[in-house]
Write a structure and sequence with these properties.
single chain, about 5% helix, globular, six-stranded mixed beta sheet
């Protein structure tokens, strides 16, 4: 098998006894690596032996390429969750960000890109060649799996299947990688950070996604305004491993449906310093490694 890309060439010889799934895995890694290194060819040459793996310009969703936009956890999603889909040839080279349409909602097609979840078009936040950010429609609730596919300029990607849970909570972090300091506000409205820690006994506001359904129906892809719906499932918060009293858990005002705000009171008995924070909804905990600062 010979693969050429922008003047570079690879010759790959496969032993006849190599299982087909191993060949597929290797070819997928090459395909993704080329896109990552900006060496992706403008048009793949014909590859008679493996036509379904190397299609000229066809979008391809990476393995584990469907993840929470907050925690980066993959393979499980929830209704209303903000997600990131990664891969190659997913959209235009120049990234495009969505704007609200005349109906007050995010578009389901942006720069020629559509994301289909069990055939339902998802509201889009931003699209690019290697990443698409979108929102899982609330209407898919009750199903056990989602088949994720993408279309760009009429070309259909491969499909990836992820589990659909009632909730899959994740907290947004300042690093945008699901680790480190949380995107959190202190009771006085200041950003929680080492120089401005939250006082013990005060309230902190956390922001996340993947909380699942609200207690009243909401429109997919629309910002929410008061009166705000609450999260349907009970929400628990742990700061420094200790339960924290939840004062509010619901939609974040003026942000798109699917972003949740959770206000919790910092336990008095905590030590000062950086403390891990987790949330639990419907038996699912957010990923460890997210923190706030306490004084």
């Amino acid at each position: 098998l010979r693969v050429e890309a922008d003047g570079l060439a690879w010759a790959v010889l496969f032993n006849g006894g190599v299982p087909e799934e191993k060949v597929e895995q290797f070819l997928e890694e090459v395909h993704t690596a080329l896109a990552t290194l900006a060496l992706a060819p403008r048009a793949w040459p014909p590859v008679d032996q493996f036509p379904r793996y190397f299609t000229a310009g066809a979008p391809r969703i990476a393995e584990a390429g469907v993840a929470s936009a907050a925690s980066m956890a993959s393979r499980d999603v929830a209704p209303g969750e903000l997600i990131s889909v990664t891969g190659a040839y997913l959209g235009p080279e120049m990234p495009a960000a969505a704007a609200l349409g005349p109906d007050g909602r995010l578009p389901v097609e942006l720069a020629g890109v559509r994301l289909l979840l069990n055939g339902v078009s998802a509201p889009l936040l931003a699209v690019s060649e290697t990443q698409v950010n979108a929102i899982v429609p609330f209407s898919v609730a009750g199903q056990s799996e989602l088949r994720v596919e993408l279309e760009w300029q009429g070309r259909r990607s491969n499909s990836r299947t992820v589990s659909l849970l009632a909730a899959r909570p994740g907290l947004f972090t300042r690093s945008s990688n699901g680790r480190g300091p949380a995107c959190a506000l202190n009771q006085d409205g200041s950003v929680n950070e080492e120089a401005r820690p939250a006082a013990r006994g005060s309230s902190v506001a956390l922001f996340g996604t993947g909380a699942g359904a609200f207690n009243t129906p909401v429109a997919d892809g629309a910002p929410l305004r008061p009166p705000l719906p609450g999260v349907r499932q009970p929400v628990r918060v742990f700061i420094g491993g200790r339960p924290a009293r939840v004062e509010y858990a619901g939609a974040a005002p003026h942000l798109v449906a699917g972003v949740v705000q959770i206000n919790a009171r910092v336990p008095e008995e905590l030590a000062a310093g950086e403390q891990q924070i987790e949330i639990e909804i419907a038996g699912q905990r957010s990923r460890p490694g997210v923190t706030i600062w306490v004084r």
